[in-house]
């Protein structure tokens, strides 16, 4: 922990049933606003435009015509309250505006005012309101207290997905000149350099060479970490955090060892050196399309046959669920493989075919549990089977370690809690929110640590990994408790026994 | 023909037209607005049939609500199941001869009326007692409950307190259907009951009752998990591909 926090760290709760409500508890929380240059890099107005109240309504109208979900979700909510206690940010902060339905209502009030008869005739009756400074402030604060994790949509009788509402609201705000610095700055880097970190090609090559040396030193095996290899079979697209952050990089080493043992000829691309697509967070199809186009271009340029994604949650959602729409058709790749594949699908398949050798006793110093990342759990799939995204990571973990324990089922699989840092909120200016939003996951972890001797928690998302290593110390857990799944594979794989 | 009969007849015609047209417009809007991306809440069925079953489970036994909150689920089932039975019971006022199953349903319809009101009252109590639900409730949410309770309550009055001339009521409705007006009995509870029903029909397509068609169109429930196998492309998004491909060709 760098310095003492200026906020209270929430206590583990005795009674999980009724999170206490504290009105206005997070009214002060908002991320830094994008500077004009961050905005303009993405083609958004640099600052609040003239006539912004009306422009916001126009943009909402535009989105309503383009997105069925928005229409249906804004109309259908019956205020049943089923979602009210399901959001980790509500649980962790108690701020009622963090109840999913209340968050939706921030946008719904404008929708009702301008796009429904009831809201035009009797605004007071149906909570319809005009856009004003107060509304915009609330939007900026509370649509940046949603990690777009979709947990609420699991529990809503109509599947209303607050993530879609948050994305639309952020898109509208970008279009009137009020963007979020963190996401927009990162997107500009991707457009210019190819990854979120702004890591240029020479630095990337350098890093990958360094990893080759490390593995050679540690394991005595020349595992390759290729960059821009023309004609490789596989393009690996992985979150750029995998290139150097801990524990991410241990995962990357794991992928490389798997490819090495299976004899798969792979490469990363310096042009598309990023799996993440932050444009999803700002709800911009156009930006998502532009970022995804880099992957298509890299695959074409390098002449690969397959595209495989590394461990990253929202990146996998964009990859699994959106990439075919955004960057397809993929008819130039080998039709034998799904496009794209997840590295876990590949590893899992190799394990099943006996093509790689794992010795789980290599990880006997650990007892593992697994955190389902929200975007993988509720936004994507694996293995072409319903629920494969829950089965495959667990099978790979169990093949790599001997001691594995599940957390409370009310907090795993489709009901998993977000780490607290997803959805473009993984920024230091939202530290309080991130710490508080992690509460439900930390409670479930505490339970298995105390009762089952769990020592480590594995995750398959770059954001989860960064978020947990930052917030776990606030709850009394060591930061290195969070590990990559392929780090476990990396430790267990018996190099030199197959190749 | 009394002016009362004419007024109610006209009101029913208008209400029916508003209800049907309003719903047609909305359903058309839901059906034709594109979905740019595949966003089923996962894990989702991998076939069309699976999706149909998912929605049926949602509509018939409120699967998601069951996962969410048993109290709301019980109240909602009481109300909705009660409502369906009550509606089925009311069919006898609109058909002649009365179908066999509608005859069978008659006694259950009465209990269902109690269930429906009990469910509504419990939901209303939740709205007032549970602080989270109180926070998200607006005037229209209370009014909607008041309207539904009013309909249920006045209906029960007609059955148990001020028994109305059922034969005449049925003649009135059959007359409406055949465009051959028959006198409506001028009894206060009946007029209140019918007046509230007319109100409900009119507000239906402009209110949260749109959840009824909405549930069938919700992309998070109605989409198939086949994004990798089938390319899903909204017409407006196809333009972006054309731009991309022409830029790449240069
Ligand atoms: S669960 Fe769905 S319908 Fe119920 S209040 Fe929440 S968003 Fe509205
Ligand atoms: S999507 Fe997740 S973060 Fe957003 S309101 Fe729903 S539960 Fe909360």
What report would you give on this structure?
The complex is a heterodimer of chains A (499) and B (250). Chain A is mainly alpha-helical and 499 residues long. Chain A folds into 2 domains: 129 residues, Orthogonal Bundle (Fumarate Reductase Iron-sulfur Protein, Chain B, domain 2); 299 residues, no CATH class. Chain A contains 22 helices and 7 strands. Chain A starts with 35 loop residues before the first helix and ends in a 7-residue tail after the last helix. Helices cover 73% and strands 0% of the residues of chain B. Chain B has 250 residues and is mainly alpha-helical. In chain B, helix 1 runs parallel beside helix 9, helix 4 packs antiparallel against helix 5 and helix 7 packs antiparallel against helix 9. Chains A and B meet through helix 2, helix 3, helix 5, helix 7 and helix 9 of A and helix 1, helix 3, helix 5, helix 6 and helix 7 of B. The structure holds iron/sulfur cluster (2 copies). One iron/sulfur cluster binds next to helix 5, helix 9 and helix 10 of chain A.
Write the layout of secondary structure elements.
The complex is a heterodimer of chains A (499) and B (250).
Chain A: H1 36-41, H2 52-66, H3 68-76, H4 88-93, H5 100-115, H6 117-121, H7 123-126, H8 133-142, H9 151-155, H10 162-175, H11 181-192, H12 201-219, E1 234-237, H13 248-262, E2 266-268, H14 285-302, E3 306-309, H15 313-327, E4 341-342, H16 343-352, E5 368-370, H17 374-379, H18 388-400, H19 431-437, H20 439-452, E6 456-459, H21 462-471, E7 482-484, H22 485-492
Parallel strand pairs in A: 1-2, 1-3, 3-4, 5-6, 6-7
Helix pairs in contact in A: 2-3, 2-10, 5-10, 13-22, 16-18, 18-22
Chain B: H1 3-32, H2 48-61, H3 63-68, H4 70-90, H5 100-129, H6 131-136, H7 139-160, H8 166-177, H9 188-203, H10 211-217, H11 219-222, H12 235-249
Helix pairs in contact in B: 1-9, 4-5, 5-7, 7-9
The structure holds iron/sulfur cluster (2 copies).
One iron/sulfur cluster binds at residues 86-87, 89, 100, 103, 146-152, 162-163, 166, 418 of chain A.
């Amino acid at each position: 922990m760098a310095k003492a926090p200026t906020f209270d760290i929430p206590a583990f709760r005795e009674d999980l049933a009724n999170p206490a409500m504290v009105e206005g508890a997070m009214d002060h929380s908002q991320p830094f606003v994008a500077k004009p240059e961050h905005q303009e890099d993405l083609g958004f107005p640099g600052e609040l435009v003239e006539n912004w109240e009306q422009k916001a309504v126009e943009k909402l109208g535009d989105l309503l015509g383009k997105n069925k979900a928005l229409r249906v979700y804004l109309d259908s909510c019956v205020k049943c309250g089923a979602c009210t206690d399901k959001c980790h940010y509500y649980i962790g902060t108690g701020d009622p505006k963090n109840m999913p339905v209340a968050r939706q209502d921030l946008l719904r009030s404008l929708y009702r005012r301008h796009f429904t008869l009831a809201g035009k005739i009797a605004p007071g009756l149906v909570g319809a309101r005009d856009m004003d400074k107060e509304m915009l402030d609330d939007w900026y604060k509370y649509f940046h207290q949603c990690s777009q994790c979709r947990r609420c949509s699991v529990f809503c009788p109509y599947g209303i997905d607050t993530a879609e509402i948050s994305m639309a609201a952020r898109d509208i705000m970008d279009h009137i000149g009020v963007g979020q610095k963190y996401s927009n700055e990162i997107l500009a880097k991707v457009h210019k350099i190819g990854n979120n970190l702004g890591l240029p090609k020479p630095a990337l090559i350098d890093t990958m060479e360094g990893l080759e040396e490390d593995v050679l030193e540690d394991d005595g095996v020349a595992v390759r970490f290729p960059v821009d290899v023309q004609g490789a079979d596989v393009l690996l697209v992985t979150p750029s955090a995998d290139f150097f952050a801990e524990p991410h990089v241990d995962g990357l080493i794991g992928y490389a060892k798997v490819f090495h043992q299976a004899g798969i000829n792979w490469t990363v691309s310096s042009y598309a050196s990023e799996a993440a697509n932050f444009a999803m967070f700002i709800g911009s199809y156009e930006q998502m399309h532009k970022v995804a186009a880099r992957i298509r271009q890299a695959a074409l340029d390098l002449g690969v046959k397959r595209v495989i994604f590394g461990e990253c949650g929202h990146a996998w959602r964009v990859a699994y669920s959106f990439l075919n729409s955004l960057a397809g058709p993929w008819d130039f790749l080998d039709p034998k493989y799904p496009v794209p594949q997840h590295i876990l699908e590949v590893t899992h398949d190799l394990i099943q075919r006996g093509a790689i050798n794992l010795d789980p006793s290599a990880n006997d110093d650990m007892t593992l549990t697994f955190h389902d990342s929200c975007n993988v759990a509720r936004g994507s799939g694996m293995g072409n089977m319903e629920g494969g995204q829950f089965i495959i990571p667990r099978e790979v973990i169990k093949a790599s370690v001997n001691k594995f324990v599940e957390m409370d089922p009310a907090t795993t699989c489709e009901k998993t809690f977000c780490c607290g840092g997803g959805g473009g909120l993984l920024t230091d200016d939202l530290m309080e929110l991130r710490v508080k939003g992690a509460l439900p996951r930390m409670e479930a972890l505490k339970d298995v640590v105390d009762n089952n001797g769990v020592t480590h928690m594995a995750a398959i998302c770059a954001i989860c990994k960064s978020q947990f290593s930052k917030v776990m110390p606030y709850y009394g857990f060591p930061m290195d408790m969070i590990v990559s799944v392929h780090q476990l594979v990396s430790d267990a794989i018996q190099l030199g026994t197959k190749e | 023909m009394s002016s009362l009969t004419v007024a109610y007849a006209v009101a029913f015609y208008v209400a029916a037209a508003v209800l049907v047209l309003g719903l047609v417009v909305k359903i058309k809007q839901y059906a034709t607005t594109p979905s740019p991306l595949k966003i089923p809440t996962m894990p989702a069925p991998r076939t069309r049939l699976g999706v149909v079953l998912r929605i049926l489970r949602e509509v018939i036994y409120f699967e998601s609500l069951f996962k969410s909150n048993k109290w709301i689920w019980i109240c909602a089932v009481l109300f909705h199941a009660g409502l369906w039975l009550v509606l089925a019971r009311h069919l006898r006022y609109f058909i002649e001869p009365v179908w066999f199953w509608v005859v069978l349903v008659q006694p259950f319809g009465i209990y269902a009326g109690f269930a429906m009101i009990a469910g509504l009252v419990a939901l209303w109590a939740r709205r007032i007692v549970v602080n989270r639900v109180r926070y998200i409730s607006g005037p229209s949410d209370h009014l909607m409950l008041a309207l539904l309770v009013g309909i249920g309550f006045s209906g029960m009055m007609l059955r148990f307190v001020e028994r109305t001339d059922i034969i005449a009521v049925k003649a009135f409705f059959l007359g409406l259907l055949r465009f051959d007006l028959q006198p409506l009995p001028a009894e206060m509870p009946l007029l209140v009951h019918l007046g509230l029903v007319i109100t409900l029909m009119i507000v239906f397509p402009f209110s949260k009752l749109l959840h009824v068609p909405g549930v069938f169109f919700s992309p998070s429930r109605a989409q198939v998990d086949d994004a990798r196998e089938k390319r899903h492309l909204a017409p407006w998004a196809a333009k972006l591909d054309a731009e991309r491909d022409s830029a790449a060709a240069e």
